Structure formats: structure tokens, C-alpha cells
Amino acid sequence: xxxxxxxxxxxxxxxxxxxxxxxxxxxxxxxxxxxxxxxxxxxxxxxxxxxxxxxxxxxxxxxxxxxxxxxxxxxxxxxxxxxxxxxxxxxxxxxxxxxxxxxxxxxxxxxxxxxxxxxxxxxxxxxxxxxxxxxxxxxxxxxxxxxxxxxxxxxxxxxxxxxxxxxxxxxxxxxxxxxxxxxxxxxxxxxxxxxxxxxxxxxxxxxxxxxxxxxxxxxxxxxxxxxxxxxxxxxxxxxxxxxxxxxxxxxxxxxxxxxxxxxxxxxxx
Length: 269
What we know:
The protein has twelve helices and eleven strands. The chain is of the alpha+beta class. Residues about 265-269 have low confidence and may be disordered.
């Protein structure tokens, strides 16, 4: 039986780790590995021998080395650890239980994410994502972003952009739709229908996010409250898609807005 500790030990050598990563997408000959990694042939042989003994790499009939499925699994795990270590202070000081496990296991894809630790700059990025969004805009929030209401009004009149939001139940209980919002639409019934279809309620929110085609921000809870002073930021496709998936996971759990708005809304279906 393969000893897990011995298997993990193979990843402690950086050159050996790089040999395995080099084989992730393509099988390669010994000379290709030597050239790609710029290490002596004897070192390539030593690393390949150890990786082969642990069933992480095999040699095929074309004399090319390729990574095994077991090797791919462990390499993806190492990617998760690498990204997590890069942001260890943030992750260790915040509540990550609000992120479903299947998305935590996708951390390895998020190698470009950055850490934001200035509240005003974070909010400025938040506002810019709203202003500059063109195709879609999704958000989860536990508070009103009053400074963004005007921008939200503009977006609501543009039927080409998809806007959806999840808000805290306590936030919406006493909320009345601002006067004049329904006039943004030629037919007020369309406005109310948009509100009902694109805003949902969560009983409790421990996470805040915004994601658009331009980028994404993620805020987590700290000491029982969402911490807006620190966040993860990125405008690459991998993080945008990851945050979208996180939003969709919560969206399914959201409840209809209809029962929470105090102002009566009569919508002809």
C-alpha cells in the first residue's frame, strides 16, 4: 500500500514538482524535459524515477513520459494549497464556511486573484464594476449601497444587461421602493416584474460579492460581520466564473421578493 506521507514528500522538491507540472498538459521525452526545465539530464532521470515509483508518472510506448491520473489529482491539490498559502492571512482570519466545499476545491484555478485591504479602494472598485458592467451584474449584499442607486437606475432601464441581486431579509423588511423608480419603464408593470424576478431574499448573509463581465470582488465575514475592509479581487475569466458559480449557488437558496416588499405591487402576469 502506498504511504501517503511518502507520496506527499515527493512534492517537497521544487524541481520534481516542476517536472510533474510540465507533464500535466503534454507527454514529453527526457530531452524535452531537460530543455524545458533547464536542469541536467541526470536530475531529470532522478526525478522521473522517483515519480514513477510513486505511480505519478509513467513511460509510454513512444518513450515519452506522461502524468498519471493520480498525478493529476495530486497536482490539482497542490494548486489549491498554493493559492491558499498566497492568501493564508485572509483565509485564516475570515469565515470560509460560507463558501461551498466544491468551490473551495476549485481554488487552484484562481492563481491571479489579488488581495485588497483598503476599504475605500475596495468600495471604489465595487462602484466601478457597477458603472462599467455591460453584459451582466450580480451581487450579494447585506447593506444598501446608496451611492450606487443612481447607477442602478440607469442599468435598470437597459434591458440588454442582466441584473440580479440577493439581499438580507432584515434589510428588505422595512424597504419601500423609491418613488419614481417605476417611471423608468414605459410600462410600470414591467418594472415590478423585473424586481420580482431578479431580486431574491436570504434569511442570513455571511458573504458579500459583486461580479460583472468586468471583474469580481469577494468579501467574507469576520467576527460575525461581513468585513468590507478586506477582499479578494480579480478581473480574469477564471475568478469571474468562480464568483458567478458562487452567486448561483446562493441564488437557488434565495426566496421570492414578493412576500417581503411592504408596498403593494399589482403585476398582471
